[in-house]
Structures are given as C-alpha cells and as structure tokens.
Amino acid sequence: MIYLASDHAGFALKEVVKKYLVEKGEAIEDLGTHSEESTDYAIYAHKLGKKISENPHAKGVAVCGTGIGISMALNRHSGVRAARSMSVEDAELTRRHNDANVLVLSGRQTDSETAKQMVDKFLTTEFEGGRHEARVKNMELK
Question: N or C: which end of the chain has fewer CB within 10 A?
Fold first, then answer.
C-alpha cells in the first residue's frame, strides 16, 4: 500500500503522482487534501504518519509547498522515516542508506516528470542494511 498526503500547495503534484501510481497498478490510499483550498500540512502529515506507524511495510508520498513542514510533522511519528528529496539521487539514497518509508516532495520546486522518476526510484530501491542498520535503529527514541 502506498499512502498519499498533501496540503493545498502540494495538491497538484500529489494528483500527478496519484494518477501515475494508479496507471502503474499500484494500490494507493489518498489521505487528502482533496482541493487547493488553503489547509494545514500537519493535518495530513499526521494522517499519513499514523498509517505508516500502524503499517510498517507500507510506503508513503507526501507533498507540501517546500516539503519541509510536512516532513517535520511526519517524523514526529514512531517508525516514520520521512525524507524530503529534491532529486532522483536523493530518493534512491534515502531508501538505500536511511530505509526511508515516506518520500517527501516539494510541490513548488519539483516538476511532474522528476517527481515520477523520484517515486519510481524510491519504490524500487531496497534498503542496503549493513553499516546503515545501526544508524537507522539509532533514529528511534528509546
């Protein structure tokens, strides 16, 4: 399952990603927002964060204007490793080295084609483990 969430500034790019994933046959759940009407990114970050916390093998894609605010709110949830990515390489490395489970995009700074490439790379890259395993475990609060 791939969960999607955005605020109003990320709505258009979320819709592009949603359509792309549906066309690829991926199972998705859109947690909102469902329009460009002004709203608070934290509302949708918390909906997505809860889903990922409850479904540790799920992945998510989140979008706000910059990608910064929604990633900060997402990372407050246990088990969520949300990474704002600005390139295909970022999307790959955050999976390989950080075992990120939420890809965060900037609705204002990421074009549609790059977003699709980033989503593909994020969803197809496996966590490398090894020396990165302990680092990922150390992210969790004790």
Answer: C
pLDDT at 142 over 90: no
* pLDDT, tens digit, 9 for 90 and up, residues 72-129: 999 999 999 999 999 999 999 999 999 999 999 999 999 999 999 999 999 999 998 8
102 touches 61 (CB < 8 A): yes
Q: Which residues of 34-66 are buried (b: 16+ CB within 10 A; e: fewer)?
A: eeeeebebbebbbbbbebbeeeeebbbbbbbbb
Query: Which position has the token pair 């977003």?
Result: 115
Q: Which two tokens stand for residue 52?
A: 């990922």
Gap between the Cα atoms of 126 and 89, Å rounded: 14
Nearest 5°: the CA angle 2, 93, 66 is 65
pLDDT digits (tens, 9 = 90+) for 129-141: 888 988 888 887 6
Cα dihedral sign, 67-69-70-75: positive
- CB-based contact 20:116 (threshold 8 Å): yes
Query: Is residue 41 classed as helix, strand or coil in its secondary structure?
Result: helix
Say if residues 6 and 48 touch (Cβ distance below 8 Å).
no
